[in-house]
């Protein structure tokens, strides 16, 4: 049974959200709400996939924030997909201070002790052809996220008993998967959602480097185009966060040299300064009005002390004309960021005018009877056309008209309890 609704209503106690924001900044909680809500009821019948801890990771220092082993969920491919691999990097925010990272150790985003032993594979990870037409029979992997820096840090804080080993986790996981057959891949796709979408950009060329030239290798970033944008107070909320992540977790040494040669490390953690230099074909899937960026980067409570943006932040339908105009400016900034990127024949683009965040892992937004579309093309089909080069260059670049023109969106709406 597919879904008959367009909007998704998420009921939250807003004061609790705001307090959590203030105390833990951008911990995994806010991202989890936005990544997880709206899962289809039909998805309950999907395949459950067990957690595999990487046994050799500890010896390489490739560990979660609390020192536990990292892990992934692997569902084997078959038939025509037996030698094809899809790697999905889990999202879930970042930690930018000792306090935030210590808190994160008590969650599944910082310790494998708290990770689900089984995960439901839906959307791009589904094993059903009718739900995932192009990748359903591939080897599909979800790499769990437990470092807090988009799989890119490499340092430690002994006093706080924190291990910032995202880069080592990435390398250890890839080595383990290569030994399990990925080395023979004829086709490979690195994808990720949110902080994992940023990670798929950061590691895209590294991923291609694992394979021979005969392997078709591409990357997909879903809701990973975090912009270096001013917030509603004129401040730089997200830049400040990223500066903390980069400095605390030793990210600088793993960032692309081509970027560091002309920009500071914090700037090189922003996708807009990386995407044009990536050699591997990359597909950017993003909502033009990304829910997380509105909630936590553009109009967070810290930048809105008088609550002028409160109702708009919870529900786009309650935004004033002036606020919508501000959000249109954010969309324009996003389109300017991808302008050069979109000129490359090898790259793909799907930017819809929705208030959403992460659309590839949810069945209702990836591929269903009433999925979001641009010019009648669902996200799954746009990604598939691009990966398999089934259409011309124009078919791989889909950009929506501005809000409120798109009636197919599954918008995230938050309501105070």
From TrEMBL:
Keywords: Cell wall, Cell wall biogenesis/degradation, Hydrolase, Secreted, Signal. GO terms for biological process: cell wall organization. It comes from the Eukaryota. Pfam families: PAE. The keyword Signal applies. Its EC number is 3.1.1.-. The keyword Iron does not apply. GO terms for cellular component: plant-type cell wall. Belongs to the pectinacetylesterase family. Hydrolyzes acetyl esters in homogalacturonan regions of pectin. In type I primary cell wall, galacturonic acid residues of pectin can be acetylated at the O-2 and O-3 positions. Decreasing the degree of acetylation of pectin gels in vitro alters their physical properties. This is Pectin acetylesterase. It comes from Rosa chinensis (China rose). The lineage of its organism: Eukaryota, Viridiplantae, Streptophyta, Embryophyta, Tracheophyta.
